[in-house]
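Notes from the 1:1 (GR / supervisor)

We went over the backlog. Supervisor wanted to see one worked example end to end before approving the batch request, so GR pasted a single chain during the call. The sequence is below; no edits were made to it. Supervisor asked that the structure be written out right there so they could see what the output format looks like.
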Amino acid sequence: MTQTLAELADEYGFLEPDDRYRLLIDLGRTLEPMPDALKTDASLVRGCSAAVWVYPTLLDDERLHFHADSNAAITKGIIALVLKTVQDRSAADILATDIEQALAPFDLRNQLSSNRTQGIPNMIALIRATAERYSA
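Structure output shown during the call:
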């Protein structure tokens, strides 16, 4: 899916709940495959009901690229939404981005069970902490 976050939010807003789940599942399928070697305890996001791994890499031009995966289809879609806000951006850009505000149009807390959304703040915190390390 090459849609922007805003385009996805517009589409998501018109969908019924079941179709929203399908959209998230389809979005999760667009994540680049994460090598199993990167799925370690160190890259595991704490506090998620599903297993979620996030592994940052620094591109040659100082932009951050995140490899991420989950063992749950809908969670992968949520990961893909989060990554749309930060992927391949500089650490300074990531720190200046209000990720929660960018995701607000999806109203994930009210659309999905708390089990599905409880790890989002931890994933965002991990991404911000990574950006802070690279911006220093």
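Supervisor's comment: The chain has a mean pLDDT of 90.
Batch request approved.
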